[in-house]
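Example 5.3 — ABC transporter ATP-binding protein
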Amino acid sequence: SPIIEIDHLSKRYAAGTEALRDVTLNIEEGEILALLGPNGAGKTTLISIICGLVVPTDGTVRVGGHDIRTDWRAARRLIGLVPQEIALEPFEKVERSVAFTRGLYGLPPDPAWLERVLRSLALWDKRDSITKELSGGMKRRVLIAKALAHRPRVLFLDEPTAGVDVALRREMWEVVRGLRAEGVTVILTTHYLEEAEEMADRVGVISRGRLMLVRPTAELMGEFGRKQ
Ligand code: ADP
Ligand code: ADP
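Solution (predicted structure tokens):
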């Protein structure tokens, strides 16, 4: 069965904004799904609900079969979230920062895992650098390593390339494809069709709180008459 089941989900904020309207979507284990839409479409709201940070007005979400409202702890354990904002301790070393997050989950140190994750994110050579010395792209990769610290099965990336230049965007695309190779299910948000095409197996288009369509990337590229 799907790793994430979203059923008739709606969100109306206190101010009256209908941020999500009747969204239904299943996400399969191991896939990379891009949520594509303009600013204000509802992408962050959708991710925030699945991660248990925002309470929906209507509908249900299950993660690994666990209802996020009644079984939040079990659901949350399966999820890693990389938020848009980069928040790192500036003087903390990379390796220490990731190890610390693992400790927050009450998990014992695992040097072999730590080395593997830092290598896979091209951070191994920077393990003894303090985070304030890193480039924007490297900082984002540290956030990914921290989000993976409890070995979640699903990773959410909220606009992973916001505010980074073209070269770093391509680097991030590589990182995401690498995560797929590790078997992690990835859900990311983006404003760019090109980015969705490069990274995702499937693209969901969100507009004004509605999920307008969900298509395999190859099909979408055909519809828009692009490379194939
Ligand atoms: P995004 O970059 O995803 O469009 P925004 O810049 O719109 O995000 O929002 C930044 C933060 O402010 C988010 O945490 C969002 O939940 C919150 N926010 C956005 N719009 C409002 C609003 N109208 N009232 C209160 N908080 C808001
Ligand atoms: P996106 O991530 O696609 O930019 P968001 O989910 O951030 O979209 O926002 C969807 C809509 O909900 C926007 O109109 C935004 O202003 C509004 N919104 C987001 N967060 C809040 C909030 N905390 N309070 C009120 N309105 C919000």
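Remark. Residues 13, 15, 17, 19, 37, 39-45 surround adenosine-5'-diphosphate (ligand 2) (CB under 6 Å).
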